[in-house]
Design a protein that fits this description.
Layout lengths: L9 E4 L9 H16 L3 E6 L11 H11 L9 E2 L4 H13 L3 E4 L3 H7 L1 E3 L2 E3 L16 E4 L6 E5 L3 E5 L1 H4 L3 E4 L7 H11 L4 E5 L3 H14 L5 E5 L2 E2 L20 H11 L13 H11 L10 E2 L2
Parallel strand pairs: 1-2, 2-3, 11-12, 13-14
Antiparallel strand pairs: 4-7, 5-6, 7-10, 8-9
Helix pairs in contact: 1-8, 1-9, 6-7, 8-9
Bound molecules: glutamic acid.
The site of glutamic acid has 7 residues, from loops.
Length: 301
């Protein structure tokens, strides 16, 4: 859908504080910032620390510092998911009341034995869908997956379809350790601030259908999605903390930004290469054109 400068646009960047930003996460931040600014929209910032077991002390402040050095200013207060358990609990209650969530007793080991692998891990075989077996206790909560395939259009990748029932199964919304699951947390958080546009890396394309299913179950509007090309290592693996992607250096902010813009198909004119971040970003937000984004994932040159 085409936007105009006056159209209502709320975007966001939602890093997990599992380490400092690397080039791939910088690309996601720059892409979502530019899309928001180009449309005269807001850009919110959320630290996705719902999974306390993965959060690394100090990573959140390192991320904020890097965003500042790269000129990526955000609007409003920063949201920390660790402060939002009440909102997640209320949403879970709503889903339970509507009969859309059910308790599950299955352990990971049991599921490994009974389920088959799918694109996002073991497909839940439906064991507890119709009630817990006698003597079993509830560990996690799952969303009843929709019967019909989920379809949506990505602004770069075009029409998408996923059959959650056969590819993922009823998925976890509250984990066995009591933590709320990422899908539930982000849907509640995005709705709370009225996000209209999600712009993030294509590694999260697979998360989109379950997140849409949750929104549909809650009767929430669906945001638009734009999944950006992924930055890859030379060996074809995606840049991530797991693949030991190097943190970006704040002292190199101007050069990092030129690289990120080039990666996104928006290389600034040569007189702006390495120019102060604010100047590069002003040029790029004026010239932002999602149609110019590269079609495939690419090496982070
Ligand atoms: N927290 C996720 C990550 O750092 C991003 C989630 C999102 O943008 O929806 O990969």
């Amino acid at each position: 859908m085409a936007h105009t400068a006056s159209s209502h646009y709320i975007g966001r960047f939602a890093p997990s504080p599992t380490g400092p930003l690397h080039f791939g996460s910088l690309v996601a931040a720059v892409g979502s910032w530019l899309d928001a600014r180009h449309h005269g929209g807001r850009w919110a910032l959320r630290i996705e620390d719902v999974d306390r077991t993965r959060a690394v002390a100090g990573a959140d402040s390192a991320i904020l510092r890097s965003l500042e050095h790269h000129g990526l200013s955000w609007d409003g207060d920063i949201v920390y998911q660790t402060q939002r358990d009440d909102a997640y609990a209320t949403t879970l209650e709503t889903l339970i009341e509507r009969g859309l969530a059910f308790p599950c007793s299955c352990t990971r080991r049991e599921l490994k034995a009974t389920g088959h692998p799918g694109p996002a891990g073991i497909v839940y075989p439906g064991t507890c869908r119709d009630g817990l077996a006698p003597g079993k206790r509830a560990r996690s909560w799952r969303l009843r997956s929709p019967d019909t395939p989920c379809t949506f259009t990505d602004r770069r990748l075009g029409p998408q379809q996923a059959d959650i029932a056969t590819e993922i199964g009823d998925f976890i919304i509250r984990r066995g350790d009591g933590l709320f699951a990422y899908h539930l947390a982000m849907v509640v958080d995005d709705d709370d601030i009225g996000v209209t546009d999600i712009v993030r890396g294509a590694d999260l394309l697979i998360a989109t259908a379950p997140q849409m299913a949750l929104r549909d179950a809650l009767g929430l509007p669906r945001p638009r999605h734009l999944h950006l090309p992924l930055a890859m290592h030379d060996n074809g693996r995606k840049l991530s903390k797991q693949t030991r992607a190097e943190p970006i250096r704040d002292v190199d902010a101007a050069d990092n930004l030129t690289r990120a813009l080039r990666f996104l198909g928006h290389a600034p004119p040569s007189h702006l290469h390495g120019a102060p971040p604010a100047e590069q970003l002003a040029w790029a937000s004026a010239h932002w054109q999602p149609g110019a984004l590269p079609e495939g994932d690419r090496t982070a040159a």
